[in-house]
Predict the 3D structure of the following.
Amino acid sequence: MELVIQQLLLGLTNGMVFALIALGYTMVYGILELINFAHGDLFMLASFLALTLVGLFGLGDASGGTLAVGLVGVIVVCALFAAGLNWVVDRVVYKPLRKAPKLAPLVSAIGVSFVFMNLGLFWGGLPMDEFGGGVAPAAPKSFPELLPNINLLGEDATLRVTPKDLLVIVSSLVVMAALFWFVNRTKLGKAMRATAQNPVAARLMGIDVDKVIGATFLIGGALAGFAAVIYSLYINTINFQMGYQNGLYAFTAAVLGGIGNIRGAVLGGLVIGLLRAFSDQFIGAQWQPAILFGTLILILVFRPTGLLGSTAREKV
């Protein structure tokens, strides 16, 4: 029984991170019907910035209040960086293609993904101790263990719960709750929902659709930046290709839950996290991709819109 609970905890923590990334995918798709394939690599760049800041400010040797303040600062800076970069990509790359065939922005998103990936490769060559002196840019980078890896239930307990687990779960829940409140209670959030339903009608009602789209990219980028720091603190290893794998899991979560649906993205992330944990433990890690995507196919066969998705007519 303890083993099942342990895998449940592991799945929930990993699922929270996937859900945070998936929210960026689903928010952009809900308004623009654009699959922003560069989102996963934006998450990767934010994790590299987090490691850079940790090295510059010497947080690896900090403790107590200094460490707490430093981590909050890293989270804020990484969220702002990812939000700003996401906004710039929208203004420079996606905005000129608003009226182009849907394939054009999709291919552009793939191109931006490769640009970000190569930026990460160059970033990994920085001559810093945190990046191994820059001698092996493509090698995985170790993120310092800034949080104690102790069992809060006691070292003799069979069930293991660490401060890292609590950080991921509590912080993710707080951010998701804040996002739900923002989308449902604020004027800009209501404008986002109106634009997602019908952008033409939203314009006629006086909503600045371009402003709404820009805000969506800002929020999606900030979520990716936040998730990057949480992931780095939890996993303690980053590399320039991590955006592809984690972005793929997050995109799968968004589709599974119903892409364009915020609650669906969260549910999909949790389902993906649980499937990964239980398949690794009870079936075998080598079967994990087959189980994940087999489950996705099975669900979409019976519910093509995803678990919480709704059927809507194609926008023309």
Q: What stands out?
A: The radius of gyration is 20 Å. The chain has a mean pLDDT of 90. The first strand starts at residue 141 and ends at 142.
